[in-house]
Amino acid sequence: MAGQMIMQGFLHIRVPIWLRRLVTMAPAFAVVAMGYNATDALVLSQVVLSIALPVPMIALIIFASRRDIMRDFVAGPLIRIYSVVGAVVVLGLNFVLLAETFGVPVPFISF
Predict the structure, then answer these.
(1) Contact, 106 vs 100, CB < 8 A?
(2) Which residue numbers in the chain have pLDDT < 70?
(3) Same domain, yes or no, for 11 and 51?
């Protein structure tokens, strides 16, 4: 949904709704057709989503900080600091999730 809004607002590209639905549903149908464990597929899908999460977060911080885009609504210094700290925390937790999912030991963290 966020990608669609960015594509429409900034890139002026419209994707037909049938194509959006096809692209979002095709992986689920492929997983079901292969007979993969539904719980494992769900966990893996969330790991993949955590890989994609930083892109819109970082883009949002950059866009909200640019006066030429936001004009009078540009984010102030305190909001920028909070958003960068929040993004670093989320990205750090995503890296821990990825490491744990793929069996890479993370120092100082044991589950």
Answers:
(1) yes
(2) 1-4, 6-7, 110-111
(3) no
What is the domain count for the chain?
Answer: 2
User: Are residues 58 and 25 part of one domain?
Assistant: no
Which residue range(s) make up the domain with 62?
A: 38-111
Quickly tell me which residue has 């305190």 as its tokens: 78
**Cα(8)–Cα(25) distance, rounded to whole angstroms?**
21
Close Cβ partners of 106 (under 8 Å, ≥ 6 residues apart): 96, 99, 100
Give the whole-angstrom CA distance, residue 65 versus residue 50: 24
**Residue located via tokens 């057709």:** 33
**Rounded alpha-carbon distances, angstroms, from residue 72 to 49, 56, 67, 69, 81:** 33, 22, 7, 9, 19
Give the C-alpha separation, 109 to 73, whole Å.
Answer: 40
pTM exceeds 0.70 for this model: no
Residues 23 and 43 in one domain: no
